[in-house]
Amino acid sequence: MTVYFIGAGPGAADLITVRGARILAASPVCLYAGSLVPVELLAECPEGARLIDTANLDIDQITEELVRAHADGHDVARLHSGDPSVFSAVNEQMKRLDEAGVPYEVVPGVPAFAAAAAALKRELTVPTVGQTVILTRIAQRATAMPEGEDLATLGRSGALIVLHLAARYVDRVVDELLPHYGAACPTAVVAMASRPDEIILRGTLDSIAGQVKAAGVIRTAVIMVGRTLGAEQFRDSYLYSAGRDRHVC
Q: Which residue range or ranges hold the Tetrapyrrole methylase domain (predicted)?
């Protein structure tokens, strides 16, 4: 059997990949984060599948369920919101499965920042304006950030910053980024991206905190700060330029 860590996407049930949906439909055991994974996805599980909400389980209890399924010879769909490659707590699960000798695979999904960019109808990289995106969070109630990865340091780059797990602390975000981006820097917050209750807030670095509080956004949101969000005058990409020699590899 195999444990499949599947990126379930940012919220809309139909944003799971075809591969992820196929594996989900064939797995007799499914572990899912009940507070984040759309319940509609569970309807894709085979009849009689064992469904386990991990919202109130710790890492050892989750591992126990995965190892038990392995012993019973069952494939497992381990659904994670967004994409497993960022802020998913997949590493510690894979480490324990390695120790237990349980095979696993990772199936990528649509990350929250991509769904947020789609909601904003924005490309996050814009020629001559900004070509770098930083995905990060802040240290508050979660694990401390490594040295050199605080907002004040990252902000010196001037790159587009995408913050996960930070909406509750928007005042702190603004205070730390203002010296580097300026009050007028385009800023956006997207909560529940791709879901029916999606919230989109657009503003500037000095106005976004008030909007976030007025909207009552405290979780399941990403904050984006950077020039590319407001870019209107920019050079066309060389990719489709008429001057590009398409006969050269």
A: 2-208
pLDDT band at 242 (very low <50, low <70, confident <90, very high): low
Same domain, 97 and 187: no
Look up the pTM and report it.
0.90
Are 15 and 37 contacting, i.e. CB atoms less than 8 angstroms apart? no
Q: Report if residue 87 sits inside a domain.
A: yes
Contact indicator for 168, 100 with CB cutoff of 8 Å: no
What is d(CA 28, CA 109) in angstroms, rounded to the nearest whole number?
A: 21
Answer yes or no: do 23 and 100 share one domain.
yes
Distance CA 177, CA 156 (A): 9
CA distances from residue 170 to 120, 156, 182, 223 in whole angstroms, order as listed? 19, 19, 15, 8
- For the stretch 210-215, contacts whose Cβ atoms lie closer than 8 Å and that sit 24 or more positions apart, written own/partner, are 212/167, 212/170, 213/170, 215/191
Read off the pLDDT band of 180 (50, 70, 90). very high
Q: How many domains does the chain have?
A: 2
Cα separations (Å) of 16 from 24, 115, 198? 10, 12, 17
In the sheet with 199-204, reading across from the earlier edge strand, the strands are 133-136, 160-164, 221-225, 186-191, 199-204
155 and 92: one domain? no
**CA of 106: how far to CAs of 76, 79, 222, in Å?**
12, 10, 24
| Domain around 221 | 110-228
The pLDDT value given to residue 240: 65
CB 117 within 8 A of CB 162: no
Report the half-sphere exposure of 174 (CA within 13 A, side-chain side).
Answer: 21
Hey, which residues does 136 pair with through a beta bridge? 163
